[in-house]
Amino acid sequence: RKLAEHWRRWAKGNAIVKRDVDITSQDIRTANLILVGNVHNNCIIQRINGFLPIRFAVNEPAVVMSNGVRVAGDDVGIKMLYPNPLNPNRLIVIMGGTTWKGTVDVMRRFGNWFDWGLLDHRNWFDFGIFDSRTRDPETFIAVGFFDQDWQLSDELTFYGDLQRRKTAPPQRTPASHWVTAESGAVYLSDLKPLSYRSDKGPLAIDRSVNGYPLTLGGVRYEKGIGVHPDAEVVYDIGGRFRTFQCVVGIDTEGEKPVSKARESAETVTFQIWGDGKLLAEVRDVKWNTPPKRIYVSVEGVRILKLIAKRQGGARWLYGNVDFADAKLGEEPLHYSGSVGAHLLMEQIMRAETSIEPTTLPQAVSDE
Asked: Alpha-carbon distance 55 to 127, whole Å?
């Protein structure tokens, strides 16, 4: 579904979406195939795996290259374009990991894999072998191009910089659990999202999208999520928390000042929604806008949605943004500099059962 959504936006048409078990011999004769998964969960990949110069190992979580290189790990994955061994007149794209950890967000990692716009995060390679430390060309395990015979070539295969890979923090995958009845106050980055969509890039857990520490206004945060606008993250919080808070802003990831082109184009709106109602909104955020702490009541809310969206300008000039220190609480918290938090605490102490969205300030204070 995520792939089809991107296809509609970029190709101005609808891609045919099928389960692997429903692909027919006619499809193989007439269509290029985009295959997601591995030999254990995609029957087409299972059929062609042995004919590929880069393939999945069958009996262990590993990727094997025809030149003898073997890479093992439950976070290892492949992104590859290659002629379909079942019909060399058509192409296949394989995107998947040795386990689910390598498959999460694989369509958004390392670039837009089809079509491209100037500076727009293009996938430039024929194949890439990656793991949780991969974020750029220097941190791929192996990346490059096939030769004119669609075979691996030493001259066209590039291996990651060992020092860069050693120091690159591993990307965390979303938690594999939901909020339970026993959960106390929790950070969103420790929960499994119900859904996530973004223009590009993965959902970054306790890091910025490019793998840096979450940093807003010169302050580093240990917990939170990073996204690239337009982005939407949805959580099922079960209707059992009283408060939600986070700090929002543009994370320049060390780029200060930003380019004039980016400064002119980049303006972001942050929104917090609960069960379809707008709970808070922070508009007109630029790279040098002081970060804002949002503090709202989510009493009775089941579906919590976080949105970061562009207000205009070329999308490729936008950087990444953070929902830092994003956490749910069962007890009211009071920050002396936060008008919204103080008002919320007073209302809870008065045992009010509901707080209308208009009662609370939308951006409750500067961080």
From this structure: 11
